[in-house]
Amino acid sequence: MLFTLPDDKTLYHALVTRDDQFDGQAFVGVKTTGIFCRLTCPARKPKPENCTFYPNIGACIEAGFRPCKRCHPLAPAAKADPTIGTLLKALDDHPAYRWAESDLTRMGYDLSTVRRSFKRQFGMTFLEMARQRRLREGFETISNGGKVIDAQLDAGFESASAFRAAFAALLGRAPGALRPDGLLLADWIETPIGDMIAVSNRSHLHLLEFVGRKALPTELGKLQTMAKGEVGIGSSAPTEQVRAELGRYFAGKSAAFATPLALHGSEFTRSVWAALQQIPAGKTRSYSQIAQQIGRPTASRAVARANGTNQIALIIPCHRVIGADGALTGYGGGLWRKQRLLEIEQHYKNQCPEA
What we know:
DNA Methylphosphotriester Repair Domain; four-stranded mixed β-sheet; Double Stranded RNA Binding Domain; 10 strands
């Protein structure tokens, strides 16, 4: 099945009425509070425009939401598996601790068992969950213009070198190496399905990616080389434009993007990206259909590679490409995000003419 969740209207009604038929099968992230809840949560109900629904707990955590302290969405999994319960309590008791595999071994746990349990319940490992919790606070501080030392402390890192290493693992550069007056400026953009990083110069957007994408450090490294090291943290006109356009997109107001783009790719790759931009919101294409469209009917694999090198997510909508059999295919931002984006775009299906 392409879509596993009911529509947002049905899920919101279940949230308001505390209907338990979707309990454990759907969760709600509330963007005004940064909290995610079970649909049966007794807390005051948010407005529908502030709700994003997810199929599992891992998707909520990866999108940057924290578990609610009233409905305890992690509790059912913890009760069902004593190992999960014990480790979640340890994580709550020591939120700033830098967990490692050796800690789990010392506690008497089998690493493969712990990994399978957390992946099955949450879509991520215990160590990934711990890392997400710690780094989120530090990255938010930097994105709001805070100092590196403040970000380090907010993330719970006693060691400046450890924080720099964690930061570099995500962004490809230590925070102090990012120039405040750089030719290219990187900034954070919050979205209902997770934070994104935008990199722009004064006139064009060069990169727009979800935080956590494995290729992000490599992509940023290439831009760093292109800009001869002049990459900093800050905003610019193209970043502010795409921030506003993303806000309208996720609010259901418009799927149109007009931010000027700087495209770094071969002539063939750029032709694929141009074809992607012609897919209307609410529609999908296969790799073979794109190959036909650009006049290279035997180049489906090359089209797939070009699709995978896209570093301007959403605006160049590689998420609209699916398998010839209708199945979801790989997506650097995570298959759950691809599914969610396609769900969101059903709202635009009748608003966007066929290309």
